Amino acid sequence: MHVFVTGASGWIGRATVEELVGAGHEVTGLARSDAAAAALTTQGVHVRRGHLDDPDGLRAAATAADAVIHLANKHDWSNPAASNAAERSAVQAIGDALVGTGKPFLLASGLLTAVTGRPATEDDPSPFHGADSPRGGSENLALEFVDRGVHAVPVRFPPTVHGVGDHGFIAHLADIARAKGVAGYPGDGTNRWAAVHRSDAARAVALSLAKAPAGARVHAVGEQGVPTRVIAEAIGRAAGLPVTSIDPADLTDHFGWLGMFFSRDMTARSSATQQLLGWLPTGPTLVEDIDAGAY
Predict the structure, then answer these.
(1) Of 157, 173, 206, which residue is a domain's last?
(2) pLDDT tens, position by position, 154-181
(3) Element (H, E) at 42
(4) Contacts of 70 (CB under 8 A, 6+ apart)
(5) What is the pLDDT of residue 249?
(6) Domain range spanning residue 37?
């Protein structure tokens, strides 16, 4: 199968491309820069130069492929509106190109749902609709294409996809701890973050391409929820720093833009995904990665 992958040179993308190539797929990866193009070439991947703000290019690449895996996102936390608009535009362009083809269209999504007081499940719909919502409401937009002959499958990733080389939220938390001289956690530290190792996330994507039915929501979740206090304690051990609670009123001052995320309870189950895909997370846990010096 010829698979077009956006975000192919990114954190999850590189591992996913490795899984796809290993499974015998032909892969074309979207690359914005010379460095990204060179990295993809070393993986035996065809390179298509472009970016998310080029809907015509995305439509052309999707049309030429047998399947699309959309992992790219601007992640511009200083201008979330621009990130949301680019995400929606990209999903719209890819979906339009695949109408009536039955081709698989996997896209990265998040775990935020309308449920509270329990872990999210694959049955919980995303509450986000429209261009002004997080990720531009891209998950629900993609699912609208199922009735138009597109094999759309949202793959929901937890707030941390961890491992050596990760530059995501946990890396930022570790940087903040070193800068502040303390490893902090919000309030009593009982709110939890779901997590998954990068290798397990990549396998979940590859298996979703092969096995997930149209309209299914996939949870690439290895750990249902790690308390934020436990995360801070692991960061403190690794950096040799004291660990302390941060008053909820001071979260933005201490953590900056990350404070609102670190204070959320973002837990999720993946039992239905594991049964559907025959997927069993086997990589290190988040704390094991932190203790081993990944951050």
Answers:
(1) 157
(2) 999 999 999 999 999 999 999 999 999 9
(3) helix 34-42
(4) 5, 6, 7, 90, 91, 94, 105, 106, 107, 108
(5) 96
(6) 2-157
